[in-house]
Every structure is written in structure tokens, then in C-alpha cells.
Design brief:
The complex is a heterodimer. Chain A is mainly β. Chain A has one domain: Jelly Rolls, CATH 2.60.120. Chain A contains 1 helix and 10 strands; from the N terminus they run ββββαββββββ. Chain B has one domain: Jelly Rolls, CATH 2.60.120. Chain B is built from 2 helices and 11 strands. About 6% of the residues of chain B have low confidence. Classes of the chains: A mainly beta, B mainly beta. At the A-B interface, strand 2, strand 3, strand 5 and strand 10 of A face strand 6, strand 8 and strand 9 of B.
Chain lengths: 137, 169
């Protein structure tokens, strides 16, 4: 609460310092429609297709030329043999399976990212393959 | 924070320029009751389509304020309905208002809603759930299309009886 100064003027000196609210003038997302997804696709990762074995950028794997994301992408395993799985990780030099999340039958994961190719998918040899659907914005 | 000038008056000149908050007078959704979605059930018949139809075509709703939720229920047809965790066919979402034949290949611009395909003997949902859904944020139901898979690269079959619930808000 502010006080009145000796001259009758408002004295704010007792108030704590503050800064304008971050992005105070930005559109309030609580009152706007969320962005419609811009990235969508379904991909079968077949273990017997040599080109699909190993790490691939998600954008490349799904055949996307436009790979930008604003918030992230959802991957859903929509089909897989019971013993099939794949690994999903954040693209980086030296990325190894041990750095990744394992997705198998029935799994789903949302990964915040700015580009599809910032996410790498490892299709594992020796399995019957796995099919992912992805939806991102 | 404003300062006091030499005369003791409040000087706000060092504050950044601002304008009133966008939609400041709009109803604050935190304090109001949410709008109930319009719910549509698509029963038998839809599954005979092997084409994409927009949500607008399926519901005759032309606008929405938040988006569309598509929920695929368990099967109601004899052999497929027991156990109830078997879902009907594979349903696909396409964006941008594209309609036409369901054409599935590895580079398709589609999202498969159901987590397991409706393949005889293998249609059990891995999570043992009878329904599966996806929410698509949009303000235009004509930009979201729904189609059922036919026999295709993903080994889906058509012809089972489905219950599709569309919630539009």
C-alpha cells in the first residue's frame, strides 16, 4: 500500500521493486484457440529395411521438408509386434541408445522441441518393426 | 517503479510503454463455467466410407472455439465386442481440409488415432482400454478430416461396427 508524502503526494517508496509482467502485452493464451497442429504423419519403421535401421532425424524419417515446431510433437505407437520397440532421443553428436527413451506397444510421448530433426528415432534391428504416428505444432 | 522528481511528484517516465491487456474485459474463464461441448455419435454407416470426411461434413457444425476431440469407442459388433477392449478399424485424422479416398502409405499426412489396428485376432488394445481419442485444437471443423482405414499397408480391415464420438467445443 502506498503512503502520502509530507506534501500530500503519493509516496510509493514503501512498495517493493517490481518489473513489468513478462510479455504483459502478448495474447493471453487462456482466451485464444490453441494452434492447430502443423506436423502430422505416420511411419512404419521396418527392421528389415536397412535404411531405417539406426538413428534418423524425426523430420527425415517422416519425410518432412518443413520440420519446424513451435511447441513440440506427440509420438504414439499405433502398431507394433509384441517384441518390437524403438528408441527416441534428443539429437546430439554421439547419441546412443542409452541416452534415449524406449517406446513400445501402446506407448505415447510428447517431446517439447523446436524442430523435428532435433529428435532422433532409432529403429532397432532384430525386431518386427514399429509404427509411429506423430502430431506436432 | 515510478520515481519522485525534484518537486516530489511521481515521475513515471522511466516505465516502459504499455497498453491495456489484450481482451482485458473479456470473461475471465478462470471464474466462469466452461461451455459444454457439442457431442455427436457416429454409428453404423460411417465405417462404410473409405474416404476422409471433414468434421463439418460429419456434424454440420461450421465453427468451434477451442477444437475437436475425436474418440473411438469399442466395437459393438458380435465377434469384435468381446472383450470390449477390441476397437473398431483404424481411424485416421488429416488436417487442412483434405478429403478424398483413404490412401495410406508411409509418407501419408495422417495421424492414426487408434493404438492398435483392427486385425482379426490381434485387435486388443495394448492398454486394455476400450476407447482412444485425440484432441485437435482448431476453430474450423472443416480443416479436420476423419477417415477409416481400409486394407492397406498397416493391415487394417474395415467392416466392423464402430462408435465414434465427436466432441466439438
Amino acid at each position: 500500500m502506498s503512503d502520502l508524502g509530507a506534501g500530500g503526494t503519493v509516496d510509493y517508496s514503501a512498495l517493493p521493486n517490481y518489473t513489468p509482467r513478462y510479455k504483459a502485452n502478448a495474447i493471453d493464451i487462456r482466451r485464444t484457440v490453441a494452434p492447430t497442429p502443423t506436423q502430422i504423419g505416420t511411419k512404419q519403421f521396418l527392421a528389415d529395411a536397412a535404411a531405417n535401421v539406426g538413428f534418423s532425424g524425426a523430420g527425415d524419417a517422416f519425410g518432412k521438408t518443413f520440420t519446424q515446431l513451435n511447441s513440440g510433437v506427440l509420438f504414439r505407437v499405433v502398431d507394433s509386434a509384441s517384441t518390437s520397440f524403438c528408441h527416441v532421443g534428443i539429437s546430439a553428436a554421439g547419441l546412443a541408445v542409452s541416452d534415449c527413451v524406449l517406446l513400445e506397444d501402446g506407448d505415447e510421448i510428447f517431446i517439447p522441441a523446436e524442430d523435428l530433426n532435433n529428435i532422433s528415432i532409432f529403429s532397432n534391428p532384430g525386431t518386427a518393426g514399429i509404427t509411429l504416428s506423430m502430431l506436432g505444432e | 517503479m515510478g520515481d519522485l522528481d525534484a518537486q516530489g511528484n511521481v515521475d513515471n517516465s522511466n516505465l516502459p510503454a504499455y497498453k491495456p491487456r489484450h481482451n482485458a474485459n473479456a470473461t475471465d474463464i478462470r471464474r466462469s463455467v466452461g461451455v459444454a461441448p457439442k457431442v455427436f455419435f457416429l454409428e453404423k454407416g460411417f465405417e462404410s466410407f473409405s474416404i476422409f470426411k471433414t468434421i463439418e461434413e460429419l456434424t454440420e457444425e461450421t465453427t468451434c472455439t477451442e477444437g475437436v476431440e475425436i474418440v473411438i469407442r469399442g466395437c459393438t459388433n458380435g465377434a469384435f465386442s468381446n472383450p470390449s477392449t477390441i476397437r473398431t478399424g483404424s481411424y485416421f485424422v488429416k488436417l487442412g481440409g483434405t478429403t478424398g479416398a483413404v490412401d495410406i502409405d508411409n509418407s501419408s499426412e495422417i495421424f492414426q488415432i487408434t493404438r492398435k489396428q483392427n486385425k482379426v485376432g490381434e485387435a486388443l488394445d495394448p492398454l486394455e482400454e476400450a476407447s482412444e481419442g485425440i484432441f485437435i485444437p482448431t476453430n474450423d471443423p472443416s480443416k479436420v478430416a476423419l477417415g477409416i482405414g481400409i486394407t492397406n499397408a498397416f493391415h487394417n480391415i474395415a467392416g466392423s461396427f464402430s462408435q465414434i464420438e465427436l466432441r466439438i467445443k
